[in-house]
């Protein structure tokens, strides 16, 4: 790209790389992984797996991991763990784990920050903003000035 | 988003723009700031949109070349552009719709600037050796007396003109989302326009939404201005100091470090008490670069960020690249000691030089850029004669002697005619 005109007219994508791992003794976990609404894996997970793809940088960044059909009496260990989520060469895992929401079927309180999904249910992260805005936020880059007004001009 | 007004009222597209290469500048007495921003700046926007380098932007390009965070990069992050990922992040910048609109309308915009640097005038009680007659009334008078410039007592400060102040505050009042105004002088606190403008902003109710920044030379304390500043949403205090040693007396003449240090402590306390952000704003030169590590250490100990000025553009003979290799090596060794002691800067460069949660990294990044510059910038030792000629004239008026402050510079300066 040579000019701003080109940049304004050309849609670009950014690379992601997401790694999850399976933890189990006898029954591999059944896992559904969605990245920005796209299902990239749905089924039993028997090993570490790396998923690579492209994202539209204008969309809000989202990650959802669902553990399904776990039978606690057959294999209580069976779980999935988020190892890494790299977007455009930027490791997001530590930044998104404590911003995640985990809804599961345990009657106990398990609200602590985790990257370990061992209860049937859904762990998800939604940045609520495009990737580069989120990166700006987590890197503490200061003001993000928007031209949209929330003050009426003084006449 | 950004524009600046210089001491004489000339408006420019950027506070870092090189004066002699910026041909769009007009004076606030002749043109309203909103017209300048919306219309006069359109050729600059068009040049940039075409992907061409604008001539006045060289300083930032040099800074980036040596790993120093440039003004260009500081402005980029304010709209969400990642300087390390420019092409990828451009489309999600907060002003992308306005870019499109401007591109369709020959570079014009209906926005107003929300980020200002305002030079109030040249009235100043200091005659810093690296300053210019345009920015210091004291230095101007001295240089005139020495026969080094033609005009000695020209006062063309734009803030002396009430109509110009009104033009400025009128634009601020109609700016929908005014964000930041940074004031400098001369010496900011000596300029009556500072208080007038602050009061005007308070009277218009803009203070609750706007951050004020100002830079002071640590010679003046004004309770009235401090009280006014406390009414603003956020305050950023820039304090100018080159070294904690007595060489500061020579560089920021005629201030005395024995008086400047207690004043620095007062500003540190004031800032802590009011949750203001205080940064050191130094101007590294041929005479201070070898003493900089002690300033970094002081800032690291006190959790104060440094925003050192760019690699000096003018006067050229004060640039650190004028130093001989032997003195450069001493400076590099001292800076490297500071860097290694604290483990080096993070690989993820912090472009937010005011990030108070990452002060050490900000300091280390700045120190590393100075090391790179000292080691790699083209040698300019041929300017040493100009340096010596200049300081000899100043010293004849000031009755001081650089070697009393920097005896280790004797061989260097003597060989250049000192």
Describe what this molecule looks like in 3D.
- Chain A is mainly beta.
- Chain A has one domain (about 5-140): Lipoxygenase-1.
- In chain A, about 10% of the residues lie in helices and about 45% in strands.
- In chain A, strands 1, 4, 6, 7 and 9 form a five-stranded antiparallel sheet that branches. In chain A, strands 3-2-5-10-8 form a five-stranded antiparallel sheet.
- The radius of gyration of chain A is 19 Å and the shape is elongated.
- Chain B is of the alpha/beta class and about 425 residues long.
- Among the domains of chain B are: about 1-105, no CATH class; about 240-415.
- Chain B is built from 18 helices and nine strands.
- Chain B has helices at about 35-40, 40-50, 60-65, 70-80, 85-90, 95-105, 135-145, 160-175, 190-205, 225-230, 245-250, 255-275, 290-300, 325-340, 360-375, 385-400, 400-405, 410-415, and strands at about 1-5, 10, 25, 115-120, 180-185, 210-215, 235-240, 275-280, 305.
- The mean pLDDT of chain B is about 95.
- Classes of the chains: A mainly beta (about 160), B alpha/beta (about 425).
- Chains A and B meet through α1 and α3 of A and α5 and α6 of B.
Supply database-style keywords:
heterodimer; A: 155 residues; mainly beta; 5-stranded antiparallel β-sheet; 3 helices; B: 418 residues; alpha/beta; 9-stranded mixed β-sheet; 9 strands; globular
- Radius of gyration computed on alpha carbons of chain A: 19 Å
Strand content of chain A: 35-45%
Strand order of the largest sheet of chain B: 3-2-1-4-5-6-7-8-9
Helicity level of chain B: 40-55%
Helix share, percent of chain A = 10-25%
What is the topology?
The complex is a heterodimer of chains A (155) and B (418).
Chain A (H helix, E strand, L loop, with lengths): L3 H6 L4 E10 L6 E6 L2 E7 L4 E7 L4 E9 L10 E9 L2 E2 L1 H5 L3 E4 L11 E2 L3 E10 H8 L17
Antiparallel strand pairs in A: 1-4, 1-6, 2-3, 2-5, 5-10, 6-7, 6-9, 8-10
Chain B lengths: L1 E4 L4 E3 L13 E2 L5 H8 L1 H8 L8 H8 L5 H8 L7 H4 L6 H9 L10 E5 L17 H9 L16 H12 L6 E5 L7 H12 L7 E6 L6 H7 L4 E6 L7 H5 L5 H18 L2 E4 L11 H11 L2 E2 L18 H17 L17 H18 L7 H15 L3 H4 L4 H6 L3
Parallel strand pairs in B: 1-4, 4-5, 5-6, 6-7, 7-8, 8-9
Antiparallel strand pairs in B: 1-2, 2-3
Helix pairs in contact in B: 8-9, 9-10, 13-14, 13-15, 14-15
């Amino acid at each position: 790209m040579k000019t701003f005109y080109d940049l304004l007219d050309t849609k670009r994508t950014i690379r992601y790389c997401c790694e999850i791992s399976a933890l189990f003794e006898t029954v591999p976990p059944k896992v559904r992984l969605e990245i920005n609404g796209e299902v990239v894996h749905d089924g039993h997970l028997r090993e570490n797996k790396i998923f690579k793809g492209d994202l539209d940088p204008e969309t809000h960044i989202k990650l959802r991991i669902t553990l399904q059909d776990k039978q606690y009496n057959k294999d209580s260990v069976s779980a999935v763990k988020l190892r890494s989520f790299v977007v455009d060469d930027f490791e997001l895992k530590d930044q998104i784990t404590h911003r995640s929401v985990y809804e599961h079927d345990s009657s106990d309180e398990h609200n602590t920050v985790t990257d370990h999904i061992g209860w049937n249910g859904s762990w998800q992260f939604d940045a609520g903003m495009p990737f580069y805005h989120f990166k700006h936020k987590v890197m503490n880059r200061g003001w993000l000035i928007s031209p949209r007004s929330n003050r009426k001009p003084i006449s | 988003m950004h524009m600046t007004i210089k001491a004489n009222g000339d408006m420019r597209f950027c506070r870092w723009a090189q004066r002699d290469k910026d041909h769009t500048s007009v004076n606030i007495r002749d043109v309203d700031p909103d017209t300048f921003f919306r219309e006069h700046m359109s050729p600059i926007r068009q040049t940039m949109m075409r992907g061409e380098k604008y001539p006045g932007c060289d300083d930032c390009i040099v800074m980036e070349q040596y790993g120093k965070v440039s003004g260009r990069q500081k402005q980029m992050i304010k709209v969400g552009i990642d300087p390390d990922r420019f092409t990828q992040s451009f489309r999600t910048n907060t002003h992308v719709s306005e870019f499109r609109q401007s591109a369709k309308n020959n570079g014009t915009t209906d926005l107003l600037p929300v980020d200002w640097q305002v030079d109030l005038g040249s009235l100043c009680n200091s005659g810093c050796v690296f300053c210019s007659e345009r920015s210091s009334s004291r230095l101007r008078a001295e240089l005139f007396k020495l026969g080094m410039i033609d005009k000695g007592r020209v006062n063309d400060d734009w803030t002396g003109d009430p109509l110009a102040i009104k033009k400025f505050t009128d634009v601020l009042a109609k700016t929908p989302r005014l964000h930041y105004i940074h004031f400098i002088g001369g010496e900011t606190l000596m300029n009556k326009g500072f208080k007038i403008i602050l009061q005007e902003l308070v009277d218009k109710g803009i203070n609750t939404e706007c951050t004020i920044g100002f830079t002071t030379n640590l010679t003046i304390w004004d309770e009235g201005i401090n009280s006014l500043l406390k009414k603003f949403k956020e305050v950023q205090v820039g304090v100018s100091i080159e070294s904690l040693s007595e060489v500061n007396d020579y560089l920021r003449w005629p201030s005395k470090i024995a008086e400047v240090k207690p004043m620095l402590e007062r500003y540190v306390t004031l800032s802590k008490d009011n949750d203001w952000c205080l940064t050191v704003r130094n101007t590294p030169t041929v005479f201070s670069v070898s003493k900089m590590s002690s300033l970094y250490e002081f800032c690291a100990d006190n959790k104060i960020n440094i925003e050192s000025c760019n690699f000096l553009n003018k006067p050229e003979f004060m640039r650190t690249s004028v130093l001989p290799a032997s003195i450069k090596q001493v400076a590099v060794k001292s800076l490297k000691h500071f860097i290694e002691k604290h483990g080096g800067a993070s690989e993820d460069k912090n472009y937010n030089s005011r990030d108070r949660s990452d002060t050490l990294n900000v300091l280390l990044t700045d120190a590393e850029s100075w090391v790179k510059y000292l080691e790699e910038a083209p040698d300019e030792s041929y300017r040493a004669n100009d340096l010596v000629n200049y300081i000899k004239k100043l010293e004849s008026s000031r009755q001081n002697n650089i070697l009393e402050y920097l005896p280790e510079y004797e061989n260097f300066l003597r060989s250049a005619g000192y």
